Amino acid sequence: MPKVKDEGLAGKGKDSIEWARAHMPVLSEIARRFLKERPLDGLRIAASMHVTKETAVLMLALRDGGARIFLSPSNPLSTQDDVAAALAEEGIEVYAWRGMSESEYFWAIEECLKADPDFTMDDGGDLTVMAHEKGYAERIAGGTEETTTGVLRLMALERDGKLRYPVIAVNNAETKRNFDNVYGTGQSTIDGILRATNIMIAGKWFVVAGYGYVGRGIANRARGMGAKVIVTEVDPIRALMAAMDGFIVMPMREAAKLGDIFVTATGNSGVIKAEHVSSMKDGAILANAGHFDVEVSVKDLELMSLAKRDLRENLREYLLPNGKRVYLLAEGRLVNLVAAEGHPSEVMDMSFANQALSIEYLVKERGKLPAKVIPVPRWIDSEVARIKLRSMGIEIDSLTKEQEEYLRSWRI
Predict the structure, then answer these.
(1) Can you spell out the DSSP letters for 121-156?
(2) Do 62 and 164 sit in the same domain of this protein?
(3) Do residues 356 and 330 make contact, with C-beta atoms less than 8 angstroms apart?
(4) pLDDT for the residue numbered 411
(5) CA quadruple 293, 295, 300, 305: dihedral positive or negative?
(6) Per the annotation, where are the binding residues for substrate?
(7) How many CB atoms are closer than 10 A to CB 107?
(8) Residue set of the binding site
(9) Where along the chain is substrate bound (predicted)?
(10) What range defines the domain where residue 221 resides?
């Protein structure tokens, strides 16, 4: 049986889902086809995703395609309780509520795996890793992975020779990472910071740790709001890109002395540690936009601080031995999903369209794909872009036969 915080919130949740669906034309078109063709009939899908209104549109599209859905969260603090209640009322087996403990979080994931799924849909890798660690993977025919962190974890699983079924790296689709990661995270991270603090961005030193797709989006949105942006990196190519894009690049040990606002976006642990916090200004604000709460070392903050208190929702003050105060947002978890609502529906439209079409592809190719992390087929990526352009009223050119021949030939 589904387990949510308050079934009475279902009406409000349905309104939120309706609003999201109205801004997700690509996924809505796929859902209409799924309802007609039923390509997922009789299948069970276990999903670990942020339980938001956008995720709800995806889950309902999969249900309309004939699948039975078992949904757990991919973050203990990102669930929108009204949406969870609405999904439960719509027949989705959902185990999610905002503010889960760590044990409750992993309990919910295992409840979905106990349903004996045919396919998995993951965001961060916790579901897929548990499936492998606890012996659920042998029957599973395939899966998808939504985010950079999860793809990296599953590639490590593959390298160790332990991946038991094919997983499509949805995160790496061009219509996902070039839009969701860049524009979606950029906007929603700023949104989370503003909701938690209501501070002025303009004129402040804004430090972005990591200049991948996510960091690039955050840096550009912060600059657009008038911030003076510093980028820290460990990758020389990405550091060079940041410099060429006009950002100041320096090590975190130097940026720590200057920054007013810090956002981590690396997918790695210990990006901001005690040694950095000790040299920060009084009033520095720390936030994380990476998947797990390990980029800002909360453990270090807890150990080094003399006192702490919550001043606002998602805003915790730490008093340091030197008398200065620093402020941690959203407990060091994903600030855009904990302190705000995550990405806008319009950009999640493309990400989740890739998810739906990738699951359909896995069904059609069942038993034929290797147990590896595999890319989204190019035709899926292109189809998502074509539908999105059409929904925006944009028409593009097509290659002539002569141009196609020219591109295939080595002759001039």
Answers:
(1) EESSSHHHHHHHHTT-GGG--EEEE-SHHHHHHHHH
(2) yes
(3) no
(4) 83
(5) negative
(6) 52, 123, 146, 176, 180
(7) 14
(8) 52, 123, 146-149, 176, 180-181, 210-217, 233, 268, 289-291, 336, 343
(9) 52, 123, 146, 176, 180
(10) 184-338
